[in-house]
Amino acid sequence: MPKTLVEMAADIVAAQASHISMSSDEINDTLNKLFITLRDIKNEENRISNSFDVINKVKVNDNPKASIQKDKVVCLECGKEFKQISRSHLKIHNLTPKEYKKKHGFSLKQALSSKCLTAKRRKLAKEKQLGNKLAEYRMKRAAEKGQNLSV
């Protein structure tokens, strides 16, 4: 569990007091000033984070395809971020991947995963020559069906 602001301020002042002799009044004043400073920094950090969230939501809502980003995918239903939007997550919204894609204007072939994850999968498939293996399998299957029909 992360430390509270009071705990962080106390740790910092304790570290400072161990190296510099400080009176109890100086420790008290330093602790109060440090706590206020840490609180202000935390509030500013939250404000900036919230403004980025609003900006990202506006971009995603204007162009649903912007929800598929380099390192994440934003669910257009709830705004949560994932590496990949799974079927189980879409069940929460009573949608299948096909319905989700149609609702938000995605191609049915569009992967609901981040661009980085899609690129990794593509590279792995090429290394294992899965495209060639699939083509061979389909040709073999078509030939077997053709033989069965001619018998």
Description:
The chain has 151 residues and is mainly alpha-helical. The chain folds into 2 domains: 62 residues, no CATH class; 86 residues, ROS/MUCR transcriptional regulator protein (Arc Repressor Mutant, subunit A, Orthogonal Bundle). Helices cover 68% and strands 3% of the residues. The chain has a two-stranded antiparallel ribbon with strand order 1-2. A hairpin with a 6-residue loop joins β1 and β2. α1 crosses α2. The mean pLDDT is 85.
Keywords summarizing the entry:
151 residues, mainly alpha, Arc Repressor Mutant, subunit A, 68% helix, elongated
Can you lay out the helices and strands and say which pair or pack?
Layout: H1 5-19, H2 24-62, E1 73-74, E2 81-82, H3 87-92, H4 97-104, H5 115-127, H6 130-150
Antiparallel strand pairs: 1-2
Helix pairs in contact: 1-2
